[in-house]
Amino acid sequence: MPKRNRINRYRSYGWSWKKIAGIYGVSPTTARRWSVQ
Question: One Pfam family, short name please (predicted)?
Answer without folding.
Answer: HTH_23
